[in-house]
Automatic annotation (TrEMBL):
This is Galactosylgalactosylxylosylprotein 3-beta-glucuronosyltransferase. The active site is at E249 (proton donor/acceptor). Its main location: Golgi. It comes from Hermetia illucens (Black soldier fly). UDP-alpha-D-glucuronate binds at P55, T56, Y57, D86, R131, R136, D159, D160, D161, H276, T277, R278.
Length: 303
């Protein structure tokens, strides 16, 4: 093969192209860095363990909901995820999901069936029984039995139908000993945002809740987290089958704190980092027709 002779002009063009490529690669790496809040959360050392409790039950969207939630948990290394199923036994669906997400070592799978004799007082047919009471209490028992008052931790009730920013867990890391952290929640209670109200000294004096504002703590389950030592100090702090709809948050918080002791987070409650989005019930009319014919669209497939 003959020798290749490059003219000076060709050499200059090659050098310029090479420099442009190097600059492009360098700039791309800079632009693709993880967000600041993620880089901070990724440092697990010296962070409290966040025990995130998720009650769940079998329904068509269960796996989709938990899959979305698992992607958040993956990004926050100091979260220990406690999934409690409303069933007699844990399911292979949840087990498989945790295995595929690589979260087996950072999770606990429990089951606690809601007793059928408990009925919520009220006229709303969609609230025939308290939701999540037995499951959340089972998780609280597990936490109290497997941790001590000297462990650094935070307990958060992370329902599977909400949308969470990774930044929210960064805020939970700031919760002080024997305190309850609070923050705004988007799209809840008939409002764009339901939030704590602070005075000039940044002390929580109330909430802007529109639905049942007379509640002792009129906030959503997604809007607070409790320091682990408080739950050890107050073993009577649990949820109850006897309270009205919307009073579960107040039921547990009344045992562990008072309004003025709440710790405002999320930029002094000026940022929304969690949304009460819920999931639309899927329309499965065709599936129902198949079922009546003794068939299904998902034979052998976990959906």
């Amino acid at each position: 093969m003959g020798e290749i002779h490059l003219r000076p002009r060709q050499i200059i063009i090659i050098v310029v192209i090479f420099v442009v490529i190097i600059l492009f690669i360098t700039n791309t790496r800079q632009n693709c860095e993880f967000p600041k809040y993620y880089r901070s959360s990724a440092r697990k050392d010296d962070l409290p363990t966040i025990f995130a409790i998720t009650p769940t039950y079998y329904r068509p969207v269960q796996k989709a909901e938990l899959t979305r939630l698992s992607h958040v948990v993956m990004l926050v290394p100091n979260v220990h995820w406690i999934i409690v199923e409303d069933a007699d036994h844990t399911s292979s669906l949840v087990t498989n999901l945790l295995q595929r997400a690589g979260l087996v070592e950072r999770s606990t799978q429990l089951s606690a069936k809601t007793p059928t004799q408990f009925k919520l007082q009220g006229k709303d047919p969609n609230w025939s029984k308290p939701r999540g009471v037995e499951q959340r209490n089972a998780a609280l028992r597990w936490i109290r039995e497997n941790t001590s008052k000297d462990d650094r931790g935070v307990v958060y009730f992370m329902d599977d139908d909400n949308a969470y920013s990774v930044e929210l867990f960064e805020e939970m890391n700031k919760i002080q000993a024997e305190r309850v952290g609070v923050w705004p929640v988007g799209l809840v209670g008939g409002l764009m945002v339901e939030k704590p109200i602070l005075n000039n000294e940044n002390i929580v004096t109330g909430f802007n809740a529109a639905w049942r504002p007379e509640r002792p703590f009129p906030l959503d389950m997604a809007g607070f987290a409790i320091s682990l030592d408080l739950l050890h100090k107050r073993p009577e702090a649990v949820f109850s089958f006897e309270v009205e709809r919307g009073y579960q948050e107040s039921e547990i918080l009344r045992h562990v704190t008072v309004l003025k002791e709440l710790q405002p987070l999320a930029n002094l409650c000026k940022e929304v980092l969690v949304w009460h989005t819920r999931t639309e019930k899927p329309k499965l009319t065709e599936e129902e027709k198949l079922r009546k014919a003794g068939k299904s669209s998902f034979d052998g497939i976990e959906v």
